Amino acid sequence: RCGFRVNSGDRAPIEEGDLPDVLEQDSSERNLQWFHRIWEAEKSRVARRNGSTSKQERPSLQRAIAVDFMKSLWYVQPLMLCSSAARLVQALALGLLLESFETSEHNPQAGKGYLWSGVLVVSGFVVLMEHHHVFFYTWRRGMQYRIACVAAIYDKSLRLSSCASVELGATARRNQKGVSSSSNASSGNVVNIATNDVERFLLATLFASYIWWAPIQSVAILIIGFINVGWSFVAGFGMLCVIFAPLQVWLGNRFAKMRSKIAAVTDERVTLVSQAVSGVRVMKMSGWEDKFNARIASIRERECRQIERVNLYRALNESIF
């Protein structure tokens, strides 16, 4: 089917009608219905819990999505188990393969090169198959979470009256001036959520399983390294955990704080642009184009500086990784 599309594009430009329809499980309508279903289930759980205890709890969308992730993608965990085991076997087989090249009378691995080569190939094949299948399933699930959240935002915005929108905008302006309030829903904030924040679902679903698989693999590597190398491996492993693990935690906290700063600046810029577009007639009649342009350019410059700082930290993180 993909080959047919490529051949069609070679003969003539591909138009929208040539593309296949979106699958039902990836449609906005179905994912929105699923989103409402898990949210209602979370609210029912909290209501039952609050009725039986004196401590009041609020519904958590984060918990609802996490529970759904574990229930809907449970079959990914056995695949990751096979992949983790295959990676460890691959490392051991590589070492034994190198030992088989030694021409010594007391070498127990002599003549077993083909055996360990086969183990390497089979382990690599298992890792290859797991990697692509798990990434496809988790990435697609993250995309469905993204579609559901954007559809929920759009559905909520359609049900808001114009008076409510004005009230929310005024609330956002009071929050920017330091007046306490219970909500902040400016247009810039909504655009941030619908364009930037929901993109985090893609990476979150990809690497969420490593929260428990990474420690398990680390313990297995430590045990195998101690058996094969000794205390020197434990010392190197300890240095790795003492130096690089806290550094990764610090970088993660820095990313979170800088991301919040970027979101605040982007919110301010998008809000100002929305105000300029909605009041373009008054702005032109009053001759305020240059002032608005200067303010927007100034905010954009601050936003770019924050993004550059994030990129510097990201480069440091990638070099350590």
Topology of this structure?
Layout: H1 2-11, H2 28-52, H3 61-72, H4 76-100, H5 113-158, H6 162-176, H7 187-195, H8 200-207, H9 210-228, H10 231-278, H11 280-286, H12 289-320
Helix pairs in contact: 2-3, 2-5, 4-5, 4-9, 5-8, 7-10, 10-12
Q: Would you mind describing this structure in some detail?
A:
- The protein has 321 residues and is mainly α.
- Helix content is 80%, strand content 0%.
- The protein has 12 helices and no strands.
- It has helices spanning 2-11, 28-52, 61-72, 76-100, 113-158, 162-176, 187-195, 200-207, 210-228, 231-278, 280-286, 289-320.
- α4 runs antiparallel to α5 and α4 runs parallel beside α9 (210-228).
- The longest helix has 48 residues, at 231-278.
- The chain starts with a helix and ends with a helix.
- Mean pLDDT is 80; it is low at 169-184.
Rg, rounded, reads 27 Å
Give the count of helical stretches.
Answer: 12
Based on helices, strands and strand pairing, what is the structural class?
Answer: mainly alpha
Distance between the termini: 39 Å
Poorly predicted parts: 169-184
How many β-strands, per DSSP? 0
Helix content: over 70%
Mean pLDDT: 80
Shape: elongated
**Helix-strand pattern:** HHHHHHHHHHHH
Strand portion: under 5%
Q: Main β-sheet: number of strands, strand sense, barrel status?
A: none
In short:
The protein is mostly helical. The protein has helices spanning 2-11, 28-52, 61-72, 76-100, 113-158, 162-176, 187-195, 200-207, 210-228, 231-278, 280-286, 289-320.
List keywords for this structure.
80% helix, elongated, single chain, mainly alpha, 321 residues
